[in-house]
Design a protein that fits this description.
alpha/beta; globular; binds nicotinamide-adenine-dinucleotide
Length: 433
Amino acid sequence: MKIGVVGSGYVGLVSGACFADFGHEVTCVDIDEEKTAALCRGEVPIFEPGLDTLIERNMAAGRLSFTTDLAGTVRGSEVVFIAVGTPSRRGDGHADLSYVESAAREIGAAIEGFTVVVTKSTVPVGTGERVEEIIREANPDADFAVVSNPEFLREGAAISDFKRPDRIVIGSDNPRALEVMREVYRPLFLNKSPVVEMNRSSAELAKYASNAFLATKIAFINEIADLCEKTGADVQNVAHAIGLDKRIGPKFLHAGPGYGGSCFPKDTLALLKTAQDYEVPQLIVESVVSSNDKRKRAMGRRIVHAIGDNARGKKVAILGLTFKPETDDTRDSPAIAIIQALQDAGAKVAAYDPQGVEQASMVLTDVDYASSPYEAAQDAEAVVIVTEWDEFRALDLSRIRDCMRDLVLVDLRNIYHRQEVERLGMKYVAVGR
Ligand SMILES: NC(=O)c1ccc[n+]([C@@H]2O[C@H](COP(=O)([O-])OP(=O)(O)OC[C@H]3O[C@@H](n4cnc5c(N)ncnc54)[C@H](O)[C@@H]3O)[C@@H](O)[C@H]2O)c1
């Protein structure tokens, strides 16, 4: 099939490359000319394991191409996916739909022949109708259907998530559009990936409900971790015990510095705004958002406390800037809030991250970026593990200790055992144990 993907970001690139790998003919369109030119040269602008080889293979096979020509792409496609950003709107936290709306307008103007327009971007319930309206206004004669197909991939494991998803959600009541969508995902049908069809509103809401639930699990275990610290319990044992219950499950029960990333913070907030509009309070999600917001700065205070309640002029080394390992994405990463809290307290911050420096340096100021954990740790009072990159799992702790004056390891991901750190003469601060 001929597929157009509007937006060559994390979701658009992964979806486009995977659809091409299924054998479809895919064109990814972006308004960013520099990004598109780089992609045409075979340069992948984001870090996502396996994505560069997947793109290279499918470009070489002639199934994947990149362009800024949206109209031409739409005219040549049976299905057009909208995969542009839906960040938090400045000021009120609603999902900013301006990118989706402008993409819909341009798509509408270009439609020729029956076209299925699919919102893969995470959009508030009811957006499908708005997209439909915009296309109709732009092109009253257009023959089209608007389908919701929210994306559930995780950065860092995006390709395997896309190719072996827990489920594919398709929201539409239009039989013709459903046929087309089944054809798009046919290779996954053959793999027996569950495809669940529902009306468009349900599909749109399912995405927000899913992210809000996962955020709730994280916020929950983080609050339990605080209680563990006061009571002598160990949150890792508690999480293990409750996670073995099949009704609960072990995932998303790792205590840490709070959730971040390009999805949970903005999607939980957007869900609350939708709930306000419909006058249906979501008290649980409200508490989750507030608990998580407080947690990030609280982690900053925890570090200051660990270095004697006075950070002024002291150096702190931050290991990990991305919101999770195996990505270069630092959007709403806990590391950003923690670094800002430390700087507010007067600390000097050095940081190391295998992939996240370029993005972090766009939002942070006065940070010394190091080329290794050991360089970051030089003369620092505390080394703080914020992101659980594999390369932080087996640090040479005695080398770290030799770099540090006052020997505090703040392990916000609970990677190390207290005994192994303390045996080396370092102070150890973890989360919930
Ligand atoms: N990143 C994730 O892990 C993830 C997972 C699931 C869902 N989502 C959702 O998918 C959507 C996209 O997220 P992302 O992380 O890929 O965003 P992103 O910011 O990485 O990419 C968006 C791209 O769209 C382009 N764009 C904006 N307006 C355009 C237009 N009119 N025409 C063509 N291109 C345009 C931008 O230049 C950018 O390259 C969001 O709604 C997000 O919530 C993201």
